[in-house]
């Protein structure tokens, strides 16, 4: 089973969790009070760079007659789309730049370059996912409804095909996000049928606009070379989808990104919410270029703690979050992108099988754990330290 008692699992008492919450609140206040022109210049510069790269890439695709030119232009277009999707669209949609009071860079007005409707995504992602991160049966992002990511999700014969579903989801990730958004919007608006119909029309209209732009109008501008441009647009969207999928899955589903039962939501304090975000997310190691390319979502732990703080601040926030983890003896889950993705794929392929073919218990498996894994004597008050020490000691004994 997933974690039902987060304090017991974290090896922290009520006072310690409250103190942890105060320290994280202090980090938030420090960043909020220091936001200014430098941060505003960063997002404006990023938008200018992305738009310039987009135009340059399309000119190279349309004007070059060589295969090399097509490949270079397509790669540049895919990168421009990735930046727009994650470092701009995702982060603006979180309200990270609303403090600027710029109507052109505001969560309520920004519409990103993909088929999903931004307003519908903001509800499914900002609220349903970030408020209830990794809570089984509540967070719809846990496997996105098509992939079994924890043994708390009942196995069904259809899960045998989830390795193929995973590949399909990666290929059409923007469509998955769009459908995910309209699904959550339907749940939110029900039983108001008129508003549900309106939401579906908005989604259909966005699909029509996006498809018309990418697959009709832009290729038509190339006239006799429309096939070349169409192929570049399809390829760039595919590459953007794969990259966004990889970044999102590596931040949510490798070993160490824990899952929770709905019990943790009962009378959940701010400190417990912070703790759930820290235990339920994972980072991957990245330098400045990789961080920028991923929308700074290589800092998924920090993003989940402070989803509305500017993405360009997450690197400095990460230093302080690590210090908090060290102080309270909590794990800070981070590894290389390649390793995190390998762990994700291992979980996807393993959980495609019925539970009877799995070795570890549902309380003590790499992808699913609970506080009951410590009932053999390493529980709170019995371990030599906090959670990180207890996990290390448990691993040593098992070896």
TrEMBL record:
Protein name per UniProt: Linoleoyl-CoA desaturase
GO terms for MF: acyl-CoA 6-desaturase activity
Location of the region described as Disordered in the Swiss-Prot/TrEMBL record: 364-399
Species whose genome carries this gene: Mycolicibacterium hippocampi
Top EC group: oxidoreductase
InterPro entries assigned: FA_desaturase_dom, Fatty_acid_desaturase
GO process annotations (BP): lipid biosynthetic process
Keywords, in A-Z order: Oxidoreductase
């Amino acid at each position: 089973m997933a974690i039902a008692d987060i304090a017991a699992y974290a090896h922290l008492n009520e006072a310690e969790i409250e103190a942890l919450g105060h320290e994280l609140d202090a980090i938030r206040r420090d960043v909020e009070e220091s936001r200014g022109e430098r941060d505003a210049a960063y997002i404006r510069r990023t938008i200018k760079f992305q738009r310039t790269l987009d135009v340059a890439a399309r000119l190279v695709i349309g004007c070059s007659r060589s295969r090399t030119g097509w490949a270079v232009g397509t790669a540049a277009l895919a990168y421009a789309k990735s930046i727009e999707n994650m470092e701009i669209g995702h982060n603006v949609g979180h309200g990270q730049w609303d403090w600027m009071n710029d109507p052109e860079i505001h969560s309520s007005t920004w519409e990103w370059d993909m088929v999903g409707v931004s307003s519908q995504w903001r509800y499914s992602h900002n609220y349903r996912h970030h408020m209830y991160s990794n809570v089984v049966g509540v967070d719809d992002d846990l496997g996105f409804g098509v992939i079994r990511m924890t043994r708390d999700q009942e196995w069904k014969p259809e899960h045998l095909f989830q390795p193929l579903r995973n590949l399909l989801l990666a290929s059409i990730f923007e469509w998955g996000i769009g459908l995910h958004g309209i699904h959550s919007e339907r749940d939110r608006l029900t039983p108001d049928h008129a508003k549900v119909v309106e939401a579906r029309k908005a989604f259909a209209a966005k699909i029509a606009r996006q498809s018309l732009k990418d697959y009709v109008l832009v290729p038509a501008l190339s006239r006799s070379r429309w096939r070349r441009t169409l192929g570049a647009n399809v390829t760039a969207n595919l590459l953007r989808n794969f990259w966004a999928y990889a970044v999102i899955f590596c931040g949510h589903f490798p070993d160490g990104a824990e899952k929770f039962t709905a019990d943790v939501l009962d009378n959940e304090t701010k400190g417990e919410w912070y703790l759930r975000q820290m235990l339920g997310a994972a980072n991957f190691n990245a330098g400045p270029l990789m961080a920028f390319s991923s929308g700074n979502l290589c800092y998924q732990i920090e993003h989940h703690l402070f989803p509305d703080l500017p993405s360009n601040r997450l690197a400095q926030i990460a230093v302080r979050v690590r210090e908090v983890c060290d102080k309270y003896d909590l794990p800070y889950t981070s590894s290389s992108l390649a390793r995190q993705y390998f762990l994700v794929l291992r979980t996807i392929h393993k959980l495609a099988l019925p539970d009877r073919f799995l070795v570890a218990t549902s309380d003590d498996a790499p992808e699913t754990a609970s506080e009951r894994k410590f009932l053999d004597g390493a529980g709170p008050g019995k371990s030599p330290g906090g959670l990180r020490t207890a996990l290390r000691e448990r691993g040593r004994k098992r070896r």
